[in-house]
Design a protein that fits this description.
Blueprint lengths: L9 H14 L5 E3 L1 H4 L6 H13 L3 E4 L13 H6 L5 E4 L16 E2 L6 E3 L4
Parallel strand pairs: 1-2, 2-3
Antiparallel strand pairs: 3-5, 4-5
Helix pairs in contact: 1-3
Length: 121
């Protein structure tokens, strides 16, 4: 997993992500919200979702302790907009309880306490 600072200029972020995936063989990109002070629904983080979509790689978001940045519910906005991006919410555990009444059809909570959003289709 490539962990690139989400506050880079978009062109610089894109170039580094492409280099990590295509040249170095990274298999995904990671957002560490608390480490980079980047909320998962911020403009910078949403750009990372777009890059993952373009590169066809999964996105892992480090969630858990560290509210508000690492609260698992903070990715809810992106779930609806990026259904074609495979997402892994690491360390979400039992904290990820969606009470909205609008469950997302492509997610599960496996025993390892990691939330997966599989690509549809």
């Amino acid at each position: 997993m490539a962990s690139i600072n989400q506050h880079f200029r978009p062109a610089d972020y894109d170039a580094e992500a492409i280099r990590c995936v295509r040249e170095f063989g990274f298999v995904g990109i990671k957002i560490t919200p608390i480490g980079h002070a980047c909320h998962p629904s911020s403009r910078n983080a949403l750009h990372v979702f777009e890059v993952c979509r373009d590169l066809g790689v999964p996105l892992m978001i480090h969630t858990g302790n560290g509210v508000p940045f690492s609260d698992p519910i903070s990715v809810n906005k992106a779930l609806g907009s990026f259904r074609d991006v495979t997402m892994v919410l690491a360390h979400a555990g039992s904290e990820i309880q969606y009470a909205s009444g609008d469950p997302h059809p492509c997610r599960s909570l496996p025993p390892a306490d990691t939330f997966l959003n599989f690509r549809e289709g």
